[in-house]
Queue: 4 jobs
Job 1
Amino acid sequence: MGTKTTRIHEVATDAQRALLLIISSTSDTQSQQERRAEELSALVDTMAVVVDRIEYVTLRTPNSTTLIGSGKVAEIEAIIKESAVDLAIFEMPLSPRIQRNLEEIWGCAVIDRDEVILQIFADRAQTKEAVLQIELARLEYSLPRLTRKWTHLSRQRGGMRGTRDAGETQLEMDRRQISDKILQLKAQLSKVVTQRAVQRSQRIESSIPVGAIVGYTNSGKSSLLNALTDAGVFVEDKLFATLDPTTRTVKLPGGEEILLSDTVGFVSNLPHNLVEAFKSTLEEAIYADFLIIVCDASSPDMISNYTTTVEVLEELGATDKPAIVLANKIDKLEDDFAVSRLRSLYSPVIESSIVTGVGLDLLVNEITELLKSLRPLSTYLIPTDRHDLVAHLHRWGQVQQIEYTEVGISVKARIDGRYQGPLLEYLQ
Ligand SMILES: Nc1nc2c(ncn2[C@@H]2O[C@H](COP(=O)(O)OP(=O)(O)O)[C@@H](O)[C@H]2O)c(=O)[nH]1
Ligand SMILES: [Mg+2]
């Protein structure tokens, strides 16, 4: 087919390499630990950092200076030196003190899951509100961590150095400036939120139907988008210059084009202070014409994850549109009743396995059906001197067939009601 395989999160060859540390208590089961590792891997992948290796550490009691105790610290240090990784990522929140201590001993950046999440949100923030929300969350995160040797927040702090008062240390200066900045951001945010409704109505409408792929991290959202754009029938032939790299054009077998956006994934145990920042990154879901909700059917948390997803979408006012629910990863389904439980909550649910290609054809059919309900197929008989109307249909709708007849130009097309006005009198 000659389609180029481009990953959603293209990883550069000089990408940073990470060691993941999954810390568990003695009561955690192996499958719980593995699920946490999988979720963190998917998050790190989104950040375009390569997972070099994963280490599991079981803790009886946390050590107050290094969390994992000197024996483990030395063991991990040897691994870091040997594999020359650039950073160590803990799957749990680290106190600023422990983070600093470990960075000093290991000589590499040590970050926690919260910082990974913040980085992903920051990379995906598009609207003014999202940018402000995430900057606020990052500053609050960085405030107790100003003495860190390795920082990922340098971009944020760069522009804030002012003239220093005599006797005041740089550290106090930074701390006060950051506190001031936090107050400023909060004030700006309250203004932006009230303007949100206005911005929404001013958004430039696209004539192509837009679908947003939503769901938890690690459920298979990026794999789905890749599968749809890589498969032969879906030729990705154009990318709008203004679109972000996580939106793709997908051509359906019937010839219709749609845009699909990969959204920021929900994460389990999202830290409370990141909830607003997360919601602000879900703009695509608000503006989309339809949703594809991807669930990991192999996860014991599938139902509660699905419920949380729908609740958040409801809060955002994004549930007034058709949705398709995908029960993905059925190739590793453990609970035979999982899918029927999901079906009792929502229909249609399509079972899929993106890695083996199962269910993708059903999904495509479902999308095709759904589009018909969005924009019904109509026939217009346009006078031969009104080529401007044919052009209008090409520009704002999807033309399926054109016939030049003695009585005029007969065009079969789908067009959104908003653009149908000038054509109404020619509707057959
Ligand atoms: N077994 C199995 N693994 C899958 C399936 N779909 C995706 N995955 C894997 O699940 C992991 C997370 O997928 P990804 O698309 O990155 O999830 P995202 O975080 O929702 O974008 C990757 O390792 C995928 O290869 C599936 O149908 N079955
Ligand atoms: Mg993804």
Job 2
Amino acid sequence: MIMEVLVRVVLGACVFAAVWFLFPFAVRRLSEIRLCRLCRARRAIVLSYDDGPGPALTPRLLDLLGASNVAATFFVLGRNAEANSDIVSRATRERHEVGSHTFGHGNAWKVGPLRAARDLARGIGTVRRLGGDGRLFRPPYGKMTLATLADCLLRGQRLGWWTIDSKDTRDSGARRPAEDILAEIRSRGGGVVLAHDFDKAQTQADAAPGATSHADYVMDLTERIIGLAETDGYRLMRLGDVMRGARE
Ligand SMILES: [Zn+2]
């Protein structure tokens, strides 16, 4: 009798986990495959930056992108966007795409569904108020539950995934070498590159002799990808344009 109850509990937990976590994960994987195909078909590279704006790094990035006449996609954190609204305004004025990444960066797998819903709504509201695209959303850590997926769909959000992770938030020495990322772009025929533009606190490893700061890594990677696009004939596009199938 006890065994039977136990088996039912375990089976119930498995079914719950499959629906609650694995279904959104499967949706994400399918979307990523589609995104890879879209990028390859258009020979497109998307530069995407999460968690900003950072008052030190983002203006440097905007200068570099502007000098190269490149438009990128920023998934801003509501709390950082509110504190640096002038930078968000500059980004939208300069043709960059500004989507939402929640207000407080809550991990949907760890916070409750109500808290995740509030974080999502507040982030979208902030982006809309600051003139960004209130319909483009990237989940923090790429994590979603069935509740957050349903919430996004009900709010008419387009989910903006990435296909190539630079792992830039790791310490110097543990990040992916830029050459490695350029090689992946070449092998995939394009892609959506994930990096971050918040002002990351310098760690001991980043400050060691010969190490690179997070900001310098992101700047160098961006410059190299722009160079690759020029030499190898890729188009640097905004994520929403790739997803919409824009031809420009
Ligand atoms: Zn993030």
Job 3
Amino acid sequence: MQDADLPPPQMLCAWGLADARVSLLGSGLINRTWLVEAGGDRFVMQQLNPIFAAAVNDDIRVVTGHLRSKGLIAPELLPAEDGSYWQLHEGGIYRLMTWVAGASHERLTSVLQAQEAGALLARFHRALDDCRHEFRSARAGVHDTPRHLANLRRALAEHGGHPQYAVVRPLAEEILALAAALEPLPALPDRLVHGDPKINNILFDPVSDQALCLIDLDTLGRMPLPLELGDAFRSWCNPRGEDDQRTVFSLEFFRAAVEGYAPGVAGWITPVECQAIVPATLTIQVELAARFCADALNESYFGWDASRYPSRSAHNQLRAAGQLSAARSLLGMRGAAEEVVRRAFG
Ligand SMILES: Nc1ncnc2c1ncn2[C@@H]1O[C@H](COP(=O)(O)OP(=O)(O)O)[C@@H](O)[C@H]1O
Ligand SMILES: [Mg+2]
């Protein structure tokens, strides 16, 4: 019988790796990821989450090729023996890529890591500025905040009978009230960005803490830069992690991350983009709180950790409360955070 935690043997065969040693890798909740070891070589095999179409692999190949041509490290998709870069097996899409020797963290633990993460993201953005690739698998409206807030209102209207409704409702009302108090972001141009630059999508050198590369490239695409930065900072500047409801925003990590990012994008990032960094971080925190909160009722989108929480709803309630707490924390130090941005970008 096949072990449910391992890739199907046919997929290992497809890449000529039938005799490889395989083990589960990382703590990602989206794709299924395995470390594949064969004859001294290491690879990473993934089964894509069904939310992604196979064409995403074509986009990843173009963008990672572009990054490598500029001297950045990027995992390389490897062709199967039939020459294709992904395989379909019983409805699942599988791919194989090079393994990068680095560690991923669930939360930052030092200002050096924050600064390194910022510098890496700047190199990534600058390297992709002249990449004209038309994406085959573009995700529309990822950070369409009004849509996410409308989804939360709809979840409240439709799931009055959910066993957790009485707990989720007050949380939802607080999130919606905070959202209503935020000013809208200015109109901004699109840039080619990672799309999910959260902390565990960065690989660090385990000894020097140097940030080596961004992984998890299924979300690559174009969007306003401050939304990408807001998504990065809400994740990086959260020393208690996503699974803590008393989350605080770390001004210390924010300063280090912004100071790490700024030199690499000097002369490229515009003043309007800079001014939108703090408001966009708040927007992303509130948007993510709304998404987790809606999913505490819808129970249809976010993955969850069944080993630590009694239900998907419970895990997503906690994550919603955590993002709300982080947003309140940033609001309380907004002036100081804006001063950090002003100083770093001159
Ligand atoms: N090319 C790679 N080299 C080394 N480790 C990797 C590589 N790709 C993924 N990983 C590890 O597997 C984890 C999950 O992979 P990721 O692509 O981030 O999937 P998910 O979408 O599920 O988060 C990562 O956090 C990292 O620890
Ligand atoms: Mg990931």
Job 4
Amino acid sequence: MTGKQYKTLWITKTDTGIVEQAITDRPIADLPDGELLVRVHYSSLNYKDMISATGRPGVTRNYPHQPGIDAAGIVEESLHPDFSPGDEVIVCGYDLGMNTAGGLGQYIRVPAGWAVPMPSGLTAREAMIYGTAGFTAALCIEKLLQMGAHPESGDVAVTGATGGVGTFAIALLAKLGFSVAAVTGKIENATHLHALGAHQIVDRNVLLEQKRPIEKPRFAHGIDSLGGDYLANLLKLIDYSGSVAACGLASSFDLHTTVLPFILRNVNLLGVDCVEQPIERKAMNWQKLGSDWKLDNLEDMVEEIGLEQVPDCLDRMARGQVVGRYLVSLDR
Ligand SMILES: NC(=O)c1ccc[n+]([C@@H]2O[C@H](COP(=O)([O-])OP(=O)(O)OC[C@H]3O[C@@H](n4cnc5c(N)ncnc54)[C@H](OP(=O)(O)O)[C@@H]3O)[C@@H](O)[C@H]2O)c1
């Protein structure tokens, strides 16, 4: 192999479905075409990275593959007039880390239309502490606010509370003055969830116990990253004119519900996707995360790891054992 090489997580999958994760050197010349060559300094670990890196269906079709749906770094080469070498950028979503080489490698090459200039209030490290999880939590909250949610409306339930999206949903809602009910399967992490800003902790099994088509209202609004029966039952517990932002499927992509929450309680079910948002909208939300909504305790919200630790951490994620988020440094 000739030319400059870089270090990356590299996933291979055999015809018989055996998946292997390795840290390896790859030539920059082998990266896909694109207008920007970016030296990645920080990435993070997301649920989707785990799906991609373990060869499960739904995220990555073609292997071998360099995963990583999050990247922040510095433009090294640009074929686009809007960017110059030395510019700091955030690249998240679109096809990054799905079937395009992603941020769990020291270099990516991407279309200029995927890159957000780093907001003045954020460093690359801070941007990746938020990562897709924080960005998605912000989108969920934005949708709730658009539907009229305000701190006086009552408790906001956040499911998957100890996960990436859940963690940031709790912290951002608390910063904005909302009272948060953290719904979790890891009740032993109550102290951690209170420290993030949750006012009450709810065992997620409570959601599964709601057997009637509609139940006594318990929450004003919700942010759900689980899907399945958790989401279906959360809808039964939402108060009149409340909204639930649904962004995930950590439990299931099914949703078996009735129309009762919608036609009796005026409840709104709001879809949230961070991947294909127009780039201008992404830039606006990143700006917000670096200014009005910026969290004071970002460093407390992650554990920093290097590439070598990524396979172990993805394995813990696959087993639902992770609390909070991993920030991945590509410089270690
Ligand atoms: N729509 C979008 O654009 C978007 C963006 C980002 C993420 N997502 C999706 O949102 C979901 C969460 O992402 P994440 O990065 O926060 O993942 P994560 O860090 O792995 O957290 C998921 C959390 O969900 C709970 N959980 C996990 N497996 C579960 C199961 N089988 N049944 C019930 N609860 C379970 C756990 O929280 P507790 O133990 O506290 O209950 C876990 O910490 C994923 O489905 C992801 O694909 C979507």
